[in-house]
Specification:
The protein is an alpha/beta fold and 419 residues long. The chain has helices spanning 68-73, 80-91, 99-106, 113-117, 121-140, 147-159, 192-196, 199-211, 227-230, 235-251, 262-275, 287-296, 326-334, 359-362, 364-380, 391-400, 411-418; strands at 186-189, 256-259, 283-286, 308-312, 338-340, 385-388, 407-410. β6 (385-388), α16 (391-400) and β7 form a beta-alpha-beta unit.
Length: 419
């Protein structure tokens, strides 16, 4: 298996619960809390030296570009350095909110690649917090979210999904042969994208759980986790969604949740307790974590060789946001016949697919730009397929791949093929 040794790092080198590397070489580094409002971080913005380090992968081979927003916008305001200056100006009343200012902060997938590159410790560790806080402030000031995001939020509040689909159709994908356990304490949380757009992921995951004799259930009233609402700065509405979901989980007696969606995983495991203060006490597992555990216990064994060259795309929501890099790779490399070829930008330096943070709905040209660059990078590895663990990334690639130039799969689909 080919591995980019430059970017392969031990998980202990990352910040707790995230996929951003630690900076520990500077004495008297200021320790801050996460998920605070803009005012809390106001003394940190001015530390930005506008050096441009946030634009490229720091000290990596070729210093490849890293920020889709900046590379597409081609102006300083769209890079982290520019956003830091604008944030300082807003927090010190040097600048007033406008529609154009709000758009700058929404033309960003909040992938956190820029924070990984910054070598000023406080900005490196916490810039993602004020990027989100600025969106929340834009909402409070009446300049956010973007019109397309308002529309899908209204549908989330009405039909519990952002795809303009009917809530009653959420489990139309479910085959009759899937064995469910109505009283199971473990739930498979499907997520909106998987339920309505990438249903093969839901089928594959359910079949895998059945093959492992895992007793699980699918909640009759599963709803949007709230990630698309929260990521656009609408915290109050997103928290209300979270509270309703937790009520549903508790009333159903759920103790563990497996999800195959990176966004749902981050939202349920991190945003609910750490942003909203909703300590639900439910164990949350992303599918590759769960499969790796079963693999190590000898419960998951692969019987078929796939004979494929693949490359793996790190989703931002489980990568830099949550620090899950190795479990998907360990599962993939255990599948007979799989050759994993890394893209130059991988793990904490992975280039975003361009679909997160509300970008795909409101700024389709930026979204497609990011996806096209990642697809080109995947093709350059000579892999037959790009594989990920996020249905949103998967759908983004499928939408933007042209002329069947490369295939796109979710990890669950390859696992199912190899059983």
């Amino acid at each position: 298996m080919k591995v980019n040794k430059i970017t392969e790092k031990k998980e202990s080198n990352f910040l707790p619960g995230k996929g951003i590397t630690k900076i520990t070489t500077v004495p008297n580094q200021q320790e801050l809390e996460r998920n605070k409002e803009l005012e809390y971080y106001k003394d940190i913005f001015y530390q930005c030296g506008k050096c441009g380090t946030c634009r490229t992968a720091y000290h990596e081979n070729g210093w490849p570009r890293i920020c889709p927003s900046g590379e597409f916008g081609k102006f300083e305001a769209y890079y982290l350095g520019g956003k830091n200056l604008l944030t300082w100006a807003i927090s010190t009343d040097q600048l007033k909110w406008t529609e154009n200012l709000a758009k700058i902060f929404y033309k960003c997938s909040v992938c956190l690649a820029c924070t990984q590159q910054c070598q000023i410790p406080e900005i490196h560790h916490y810039a993602g917090e004020w990027l989100m806080a600025m969106r929340e402030e834009a909402v409070r000031q009446g300049y956010g979210p973007m019109p397309e995001q308002v529309k899908y939020t209204e549908h989330v509040m009405k039909e519990n999904n952002p795809y303009m689909e009917k809530h009653k159709d959420r489990t139309n994908w479910l085959p009759s042969y899937i064995k469910l356990s109505p009283n199971a304490k473990l739930a498979y949380f499907i997520g909106c994208t998987t339920s309505y757009r990438e249903q093969e992921v839901a089928i594959a995951t359910s079949e895998i759980l059945n093959s492992l004799d895992i007793e699980f259930r699918i909640l009759d009233d599963e709803r949007c986790c709230g990630s698309p609402v929260y990521m656009t700065g609408q915290t109050d509405k997103a928290k209300a969604i979270a509270e309703e979901n937790i009520k549903i989980f508790k009333e159903a007696g759920i103790e563990k949740i497996i999800t195959s969606c990176a966004g749902c995983y981050r939202t349920l495991k991190d945003t609910y307790p750490n942003k909203y203060g909703l300590d639900h006490g439910i164990e949350i597992f992303h599918l590759p974590e769960f499969l790796l555990d079963k693999m190590k216990n000898g419960e998951l064994k692969f019987n078929k060789s796939l004979n494929m060259k693949i490359t793996y795309h790190d989703p931002c929501h489980i990568g830099r946001h949550m620090g899950i890099y190795e479990p998907p790779r360990e599962v993939l490399k255990d599948i007979p016949g799989i050759e994993l070829i890394e893209m130059n930008r991988n793990r904490q330096n992975a280039w975003c697919c361009g679909s997160g943070g509300g970008v795909r709905s409101a700024f389709k040209n930026l979204s497609a730009f990011a996806a096209d660059e990642r697809i080109l990078e995947a093709k350059e590895t000579k892999a037959e397929a790009i594989v990920s663990c996020c249905p949103f990334c998967l759908n983004q690639f499928k939408t933007n791949i042209k002329n069947n130039e490369i295939m796109a799969f979710d990890l669950s689909e390859l696992v199912r093929k190899a059983l």
